[in-house]
Amino acid sequence: MTNDSKNELPLIFEHEFGDIQLSMLNTIEKKVQIIKYKRKFETQFVSTLGLSNVSNNKNIKSEWFMEFDGDLASENAASVLDYYVSMLIEGNIPFPKRGSFIIFPKKNDHIWPDDNICGIYFTFPAYRSEEFQVNMVEIGIFAIWVVPITNSEKDIIENKGWRHLEYYWDDNNIKLHNPFR
């Protein structure tokens, strides 16, 4: 990643998600920040910033983001991103690719109290603006959308594969930012 793209990335994210409101350093290397954006829509966003500097075996650069209902605690989503980014940096989980998923360690683990979520799923930002996607390609970074998944969605992935899950979401117009679905 060039110095120019390092400078462009926060602007691209702000344009898509809203102005940066808060930032916290990742607990492991202190090189990755977890960013909270000011509410621009009915949904909220948190993302990584600096994850694209963490190398993987294929030299693919990526940043993660989560989208969720506006009335939910953003700190919960930020903590989940921080936890799994830390695991990635420590080498405890592989770099995700489209269709990768992680089931939470305990059945009663949740991101938000009483949500229907059992884990997280990694995909591309199919529902982001075209300008966002073009800008990310230009700077050579994949934006990976971290989507909380339910038990029934986990079953679809395990039994039919990730493509069927994404078709299911599209066919049923599932609101992926709602963890109580």
Automatic annotation (TrEMBL):
<dbReference type="InterPro" id="IPR020941">
    <property type="entry name" value="SUFU-like_domain"/>
</dbReference>
<feature type="domain" description="Suppressor of fused-like">
    <location>
        <begin position="31"/>
        <end position="181"/>
    </location>
</feature>
<dbReference type="Pfam" id="PF05076">
    <property type="entry name" value="SUFU"/>
</dbReference>
<protein>
    <recommendedName>
        <fullName>Suppressor of fused-like domain-containing protein</fullName>
    </recommendedName>
</protein>
